[in-house]
Amino acid sequence: MKITLKVWRQKNNNTPGKLVEYQLDNVSEDMSFLEMFDVLNDSLTRKGEEPVAFDHDCREGICGMCSMYINGRAHGPQTGATTCQLHMRSFSDGDTIVVEPWRARAFPVIKDLMVDRAAFDRVIQAGGYVSVNTGSARDANEILIPRTIADEAMDAAACIGCGACVAACKNASAMLFVSAKVSQLAILPQGKAEHVERAERMVAQMDAEGFGACSFTGACSVECPKSISLDHIARLNREYLGAKLTSDNVQ
Amino acid sequence: MVWITQALSSSLGRKVIMSLTGLFLSSFLIVHMAGNLQLFKADGGRAFNEYTYFMTHNPLIITVSYLLYTSILVHALMAFILTRHNRDSRPVQYAYSKPEANSDWSSRNMGILGTIVLLFIIIHMRTFWYEMHFGSVPMAEYDGKQYKDLYAVVKEAFSQWWYVLLYVLCMGALGYHLAHGFQSGFQSLGVRHKKYTPVIELVGRYFFAIIIPLAFAAMPVYVFLQVHGII
Predict the structure, then answer these.
(1) Which residue numbers delimit the 4Fe-4S ferredoxin-type domain (chain A) (predicted)?
(2) A126 and A209 co-located in one domain
């Protein structure tokens, strides 16, 4: 396959970037999208040019590191998949592919296609945990949890924190991410005890990071590699409203 | 009281304000449409004029109308604040983006649709509400009682083809605004349930997005055709 790439090149967060065109003549359709970038970087290195910086780690769709905005969509044209799970067979010979980093105030560009997603970590640090001494592992089924609730919590916990929801949202809102992190704990007995403070703190941190508000377009859920449901966003709204109305936190 | 202002100025709280005012305005549309159906009565505007008299003299209606004006202002102002904040959240735009692959057009353009609806409300209130309250409206007499003849104002306004066309186009914008807005308003309040959400979506998509704007658009068209002797 012959592919024309238009890749966002940016030295660092203080310098303006631009799209740079690259020509790849020998792309196999069995390559993953990231392998295609490896080939590009290999040729750039051989030519003495600087390779394109991009995030990647597990390359099997579970780590949440890869983050490319491909042809106008987060993680490319596939749904329910990360960039590393995207293969070149999804494209045709002669295609031009535009690749950009996630764009959000809360995700500053570090270099080229790499963005700093530490904002997500700070949201988690604000309340995305259970603050008890866990001790040793408890026996299975010691705490009875209905199957449907366990499944729902698992669906929320499938979030890998890649940031595609923010990237796809017209408002760069982090509602799907934050709601998944709130949900996975709020509906299980271990997390329920702190659900009021958690909702308050995590939303406050989300706002402080400069993410937008939710317009409920549903773009996040469509582009989410784990297809996390909008149900969780409604739950976060419910959790937050309830928390603000009932918590002891007056200040 | 710090917690209230804090809650309402958070991104979620602002959406709650949008939702509550928006849903209240939606409920108003039902009343407004039902009342204005009097225009279709072939009685020379008597039922309509009696209805406008009731609407401008009933103390409960007058109280609610102030709540309504406030809701319109708050809804528009909050939308402006939210839009600006949302724009700031992405200072550098994508060079190439394909949002139609993942979301409805109306859900992404609530601001533009809302602006059209707001401009429409201003024009609409200038033509009828302002004339009724501060303008000179001819009088009509039914059973020895004097009524302001707002029906005459309606007839005059809707006799102009461009004014009718403006109304019809604006009702289209209203339809698209409500197609997303009505059901989305419930999400901001956290109302989402397997039993109720499909019903809410159905009501939003068909009743608020199609039936209500169609009924409103039918009024100027009907009066226009009547005034010009076509029906």
Answers:
(1) 150-180
(2) yes
Chain A residues 121-150 with CB within 8 Å of chain B? none
User: Does one domain contain both A175 and A57?
Assistant: no
Q: How many domains does chain B have?
A: 1
Residue A150 has pLDDT above 80, yes or no: yes
CA distance A123 to A235: 17
Query: How many CB atoms within 10 Å of residue B27?
Result: 11
From the list A98, A207, A247, the residue facing B95 with the nearest CB is A98
- In this complex, do B103 and A222 lie within 8 Å of one another by their Cβ atoms? yes
Return the structure tokens found at B143. 């059973």
Q: Among A110, A145, A168, where does a domain finish?
A: A110
**Cβ neighbours of A238 in B, within 8 Å:** 189-191
Q: A105 to chain B: which residues are within 8 Å by CB? A: 88-91
Strands (E), A109-224: 109-111, 114-115
Same domain, A106 and A9: yes
pLDDT digits (tens, 9 = 90+) for B187-211: 999 999 999 999 999 999 999 999 9
| Residues A89 and A155 grouped into a single domain | no
Contacts of B198 in chain A (CB under 8 A): none
The answer to whether A235 faces chain B, any CB pair under 8 Å, is yes
Taking only the tens place, the pLDDT of each residue in B117-153 is 999 999 999 999 999 999 999 999 999 999 999 999 9
Contact A19 B95 (CB under 8 A): yes
If one counts every other C-beta atom within 10 angstroms of the C-beta of residue A247, the result is: 14
Based on the fold, state whether residues A236 and A179 are members of the same structural domain: yes
A173–chain B Cβ distance below 8 A for any pair = yes
Which CATH number goes with the domain that contains A146? 1.10.1060.10
